[in-house]
Amino acid sequence: MLRGRCCTWTVVRTQENGKRQGRAAGQRRAPAARARHRTPPPPTPFGAYVEAVQTGNLLFLSGMLPAIGHEPKFVGRLGKELDANAGREAVRIAALNVLSAARHKLRSLDNVTRVVRLCVYLATEGDFFDQPRVADAASELFRDVFGEDKTSVRMVLGVASLPLGMPAAVEVILEVEA
Amino acid sequence: MLRGRCCTWTVVRTQENGKRQGRAAGQRRAPAARARHRTPPPPTPFGAYVEAVQTGNLLFLSGMLPAIGHEPKFVGRLGKELDANAGREAVRIAALNVLSAARHKLRSLDNVTRVVRLCVYLATEGDFFDQPRVADAASELFRDVFGEDKTSVRMVLGVASLPLGMPAAVEVILEVEA
Amino acid sequence: MLRGRCCTWTVVRTQENGKRQGRAAGQRRAPAARARHRTPPPPTPFGAYVEAVQTGNLLFLSGMLPAIGHEPKFVGRLGKELDANAGREAVRIAALNVLSAARHKLRSLDNVTRVVRLCVYLATEGDFFDQPRVADAASELFRDVFGEDKTSVRMVLGVASLPLGMPAAVEVILEVEA
């Protein structure tokens, strides 16, 4: 459960020997094998929408921005004011907001059975073509958190602009236990 | 049912005392509490696609443009030829086309149990960052029509261009009775 | 099954008399009525994601690019380095990658019961507004392959940039037999 403005939660990363732990389908992740990520408080909408809607086994999440509260952590475009490394960090913050919103809705990320679709939007200008490496910041976070067997499909695109001038947005569909 | 080129349909907005009417889940909206919106005739495709596909309980709709028939009602980009208020009106027309297409497919919008996902695409140029307020024109219309308990997740982005130079497109996924 | 780098597969197009063949729902397409398309080998990811995820009856596919292997077949923007005809060919290659990935996942495209959603992303610059005709290259291919009764909804948009500078991406959701 989220308490206060910032909190931690635990995820599988590796066993002590550095290898990923094999698990049968549906088996819970062993607490001993969890690493700790720090997530922001659950995001709140910038307009007349909600952060998560479940329909059947699918949980749709709003596009998340690299903001804490409504304060942008990055402003600018990749290929102009910002480089790929800043883009990766912006994508990572947006992806942490995805996790925070999902956990807030589901109570526990253990109820996620698959990351179905990940879409990464990057505000770019001119000849910035390193989108896949920047988008990997989200894919790698989700792989660490959910495990490689839950990896999603992906779309990544360069857009003209995003709300408040932020450089990235991350939008996800999850499959969850009914 | 749609008859002729333009027609009206009724939606809940408020009770006579100005408050939203509480309803149990699944309860029909009271006719007495309905306001009237005017919707365009059901849109027709600009290419080799259809306007609506239902799979299970989900109704996917094509991206709708601010056009009546195939005639654009707005041309230009936000931040260049058009301002945010024009953008809001363009988004509203596109969202009315969403409603018209959904009603044409479902016979009645009473069969909509949830607005799942709303994506608003805005053609922008330069430093236009007021996307949330413009996108709210769609969110607010759907809230008026379907009620606050059916509010969707949302993605809003600035794009480089849209068909025929129009400034906005609205794409929606609805949850419907099976 | 796909064998080697390039292979063919068969689709219904027309009967000998030039008319589409009527089929009852669920009926297999007659081999005699099939035309042959040449598809690339199944695409491999450009990052930490997978090409296809099935959840329930829906098959989500990653955004596909006009590349064979990881080699771009087109680089540039519509309205600047490339014209609409090049865009159409790029969209067609990306759409063939969609088919290749779907067949690789499903074993046979006969398991597709509907093309639900098609999204065509085109990298554009300036006043390029011929998106519908370019996107039709994907819609027409899918109509040829799956038949007109399986036609999808569609979104088409001009974006600022796509991975490696390619001019188009095609993203699809299919409905499949459970």
Characterize the structure shown:
The structure is a homotrimer of 178-residue chains. Chain A is globular. Chain A has helices at 84-106, 131-146, and strands at residues 7-12, 34-39, 52-55, 58-61, 67-68, 71-72, 112-123, 153-159, 168-176. Residues 1-35 of chain A have low confidence and may be disordered. With 178 residues, chain A is of the alpha+beta class. In chain A, helix 1 (84-106) packs parallel to helix 2 (131-146). A five-stranded mixed beta sheet of chain A has the order 3-4-9-7-8, with helices on one face. A two-stranded antiparallel ribbon of chain A has the order 1-2. The first copy, chain A, has a two-stranded antiparallel sheet with strand order 5-6. The B-C interface holds B 45-53, 55-56, 60-63, 119, 121, 123, 159-165, 169, 171 and C 56-58, 79, 114, 116-118, 123-125, 127-129, 131-133, 135-136, 139-140, 143, 151-160, 173, 175.
